[in-house]
Amino acid sequence: MKPVRTRFAPSPTGYLHVGGIRTALFAWLVAKQSPGGKFILRIEDTDQAREVQGSAQHIIDSLSWLGIEYDEGPPKDGTRNDFYQSQRLEIYQTWAHKLIDAGRAYADPYTAEEVQAFREQAQKEKRPFLYRNHRPENPPVWDGTTPLRFKSDPKAYSRHDAVMGDLSTSPESIDDFILVKSDGYPTYNFAHIVDDVDMEITHVIRGQEFLSSVPNYLNLYEALDITPPILATMPHILGPDGNKKLSKRDGAKDILDYRKEGYLPEAMRNFLASLGWNDGTEQEVFSTKELIEKFSLDRVQRSGARFDERRLLWLNGAHIRNLYEDDPNQLYRLLGESPDATFWPEEAFAAPYGATYRKRVLGLVQERLKFFAELPDLTNFFFRDLPVDMSLIDNNKQLKKFSHAELKTLLEQAKTTLETSDFSSDDLTNKLNELLEQTGQKPGVLFSLIRVATTWAAASPGLADTLAVIGKDRSLERLNRSLKALL
After folding, report:
1. Is 98 a catalytic residue?
2. Which tens digits make up the pLDDT trace of 390-409?
């Protein structure tokens, strides 16, 4: 058997979102799980009018961040080579002339206005427009100034799609499509087939939007005497409501925005793989090694997969916790150790704080951390005194039952007890439990009051651990400030 060779062939017409990058991931997984398998990146830049400056580099950077490394493709610095279709025009010309010589391609003599008139006439007669019904009897010699069209041989096809299963189509789905445009650039319909043959691609994995065009591709494969590769069609990724294809308005944002927000690439790979695929078990969190071992096209679902960003958040949090358990220092390094490039709040690099302190803070908040960009909100009270916000008391369902005077009395008792602690987590736990007995209050009241008074944050980790990290002097200073506020 030939070594498996898959490819990802995006057009540089804008940023990559989850739909495109999922296709790349699936193709990469198929290649990586096969001995000697190769994953190829090809930039399909034949539509010069739609190309967006910088998009090709964005594609390269997106794959690199996600760890979807290609074995063959363009240089990482964006230099254009033979993996850009715009650099392969002579190759397409050679294949085009093969079709002309075989009588399977012809120069299109019609103007755009004439073609539109054919289309309008078909509409009036309530029949589908097929260009082959207007095929010229004696087309001119193709000189490159007019489009070159494929001379189709309409027929029915039955085929097997590695995801969609057995499919069949009628001759009516096949037409004479353009191979080379009047500007000399090939169309996608022609160029991708030539490139796949030239690059010895064994599996073509692409989105559902190409499904209706496959009969035309099969007809062209036959005309070129080429055995088609294994075809696998990815179902659409649907919006959060599951009713329509995911769009930008539904959250189909630039994949690199997730990097800016502090998502882990391994979590994003896990999430993308789960959009339409599962291994038949209840497992949800997969390492990349497990994905490579377990992925298979025959377990990709045929229906659309709903995009659920809440699930991505959950998966990212799970991967953060796994990473912390495996190597706390690696997670710390990913958060950034420089005030110029970090997810930490700005104050975290002030003089009183060092790496040891930040690592202690990280140890407390990693259980709550879902993505790195929320780190400042989760940790700011460890590095600066937040302003007093009485709504945190007055709107608390437990604390609002008490007058400020009653809360002040409780807080004074708490201060007296905490002054005797050495502020280790264990001793603080003991002192807080003693305080519960002394005051006769519920933990939901007493601990909530102390937590608010020492952090003035909406939420925080466990009280004893939080106080131990903040330290005795600062905790007591904050208690004094809160007592003055409870007038």
Report:
1. no
2. 999 999 999 999 999 999 99
Q: Cα–chain-centroid distance for residue 79?
A: 25
- Residues linked to residue 105 through DSSP beta bridges, in sequence order: 150
Rounded mean pLDDT of the chain?
96
Residue type, 1: M
Q: What is the pLDDT of residues 76-92, one digit of tens each?
A: 988 999 999 999 999 99
| Domains along the sequence of the chain with CATH | 89-234 (3.40.50.620), 335-380 (no CATH), 391-485 (1.10.10.350)
* Degrees, nearest 5: CA angle 277-240-30: 20
Residue 34's alpha-carbon distances to 4, 31, 68, in angstroms, are 6, 6, 15
pLDDT at 252: 76
CA distances from 99 to 107, 194, 257, 369 (A): 12, 12, 45, 59
CA-CA distances (angstroms) from residue 285 to 301, 329, 412?
19, 22, 47
Taking the model in full, what pTM does it have? 0.92
Residue 370 tokens read as 């879902």
Instruction: Give the integer Cα–Cα distance in Å for 480 and 386.
Output: 14
Marked catalytic residue, from 248, 289, 400, 442: 248
The tokens for 402 are 């008490």
Q: Is the separation of the CB atoms in 20 and 13 below 8 Å? A: no
CA distance 458 to 446: 16
User: For residue 339, is it left (φ>0), alpha (ψ between -120 and 50) or beta?
Assistant: alpha
Report the alpha-carbon distance of residue 82 to residue 71 in Å, rounded: 14
Please, where are the H alpha helices in 282-439?
A: 288-294, 309-326, 328-334, 355-365, 375-383, 391-394, 404-418, 425-439
Q: Let me know: does 275 contact 300? Beta carbons within 8 Å.
A: no
